[in-house]
């Protein structure tokens, strides 16, 4: 239900006429309900950094999660696979993937989920790869961990196929190289290939275009769109780049200070934003056409209105 006039609740202004979106939401692949994430601070204190967020991802849907650095985008997405140190992390709410609550899964079930049904592309591709192993060795290891019983030839073909899907021009050659022999864009393709190798149902891409030039960014976005259009893969795209999100996503969730303050179809969000924070983010984006503004607005220019709406939401959820 639309909550356009109530800024004390997270805005959901999704356009139900968008092709495929309504069907995708009928039976979501992923459902996050009231998720809270708290980290231990000292001996007894806990700091809550994700504060009761809700969203769904339909089958074959691309959901964008946007917001400034530190708002909780990556923390909430890491929680889907329970990647945080569980001795210093407390979770609340529920995360259901294909009908199963992730918080009820055993360690064995989590290992099967990570890199199996859910693929993850991390921000820094170099940190995801072992510099002492060839790309081929690392890809084969990923297959063996989740697809036990496959023969050597089947594993090799799966590795080559994953690299091709990620946009590798000469996958056979790439298999024999070490990470240091690749450019930044090529490394990102390797990481995408590794995330795809076990044919996941959901791909989580955490800032996949960060630090890449515009040409490489466009190529990688084309790969993500292909995964959605041709393979029916569901994708969560985490980004602070509104242009990247506008080109790629079906729906967008806007995060501010640990909360989702607005959710809408991409078309609706960019044409008619409702929450003050969403409006401020879009106003801070340089226009591609029309007269150049003398001064771009910043989020700080709208801080009083943003904080008022945030406090209303915080009070209502307390």
Automatic annotation (TrEMBL):
It is found in: Cell membrane. The keyword Oxidoreductase does not apply. GO terms for molecular function: ATP binding; ATP hydrolysis activity. It is a peripheral membrane protein. Its main location: membrane. The keyword Transmembrane does not apply. GO terms for cellular component: plasma membrane. Pfam families: ABC_tran (PF00005), oligo_HPY (PF08352). Residues 1-25 are annotated as: Disordered. PANTHER family: DIPEPTIDE TRANSPORT ATP-BINDING PROTEIN DPPD, OLIGOPEPTIDE TRANSPORT ATP-BINDING PROTEIN APPD. It comes from the Bacteria. Belongs to the ABC transporter superfamily. This is ATP-binding cassette domain-containing protein. One of its GO terms (biological process) is peptide transport. Keywords: ATP-binding, Cell membrane, Membrane, Nucleotide-binding, Transport. Residues 30-282 form the ABC transporter domain.
